[in-house]
Amino acid sequence: MTRIPLISAAISATLGLAACEPTAPSTPGSNVPTGPYVLVGIGSDTVPQRNVGMTIEADGSISGQAPCNHYSAPQTAEPPGFALGALTTTRMACSGKAGQLESRYFQALSGANGIAYEGGVLTIKGPTYLTYEPGYRKEK
Questions:
Q1: Is 30 exposed, middle or buried (0-12, 13-18, 19+ CB in 10 A)?
Q2: What is the pLDDT of residues 91-117, one digit of tens each?
Q3: Rounded to whole angstroms, how far apart are CA atoms 98 and 91?
Q4: What is the pLDDT of residues 18-47, one digit of tens each?
Q5: Of 6, 77, 83, 135, which residue is the least packed, with the fewest Cβ within 10 Å?
């Protein structure tokens, strides 16, 4: 009798993890899947808190949550190119290490000029590389 709840729990966990995986590519001919990503690296630094998330929408636009503020922007280039339109953010106060990370993140995102998805890793390229893994950001 105890096997049925365990099987149900295993199936639920598997389906929950599958929901975190990116889906189809955002544009025809692109290998960049849409869906949620979590920032794991900025430049040569790791982001151990996993508190920055980004979602790539079917139309190529992006949205997400930085350490303090929500953001969104249209993406106007065909992959492997990457060019953001106006980056819109909320205006929550953000100081200390969170503020430094958020400032650095938005600067890198705004200066990006390329995007690639390889081996389960999304890279947004530019003067400062941003590295993401599929999934959702960790809540505070």
A1: middle
A2: 999 999 999 999 999 999 999 999 999
A3: 14
A4: 445 565 554 545 789 999 999 999 999 999
A5: 6
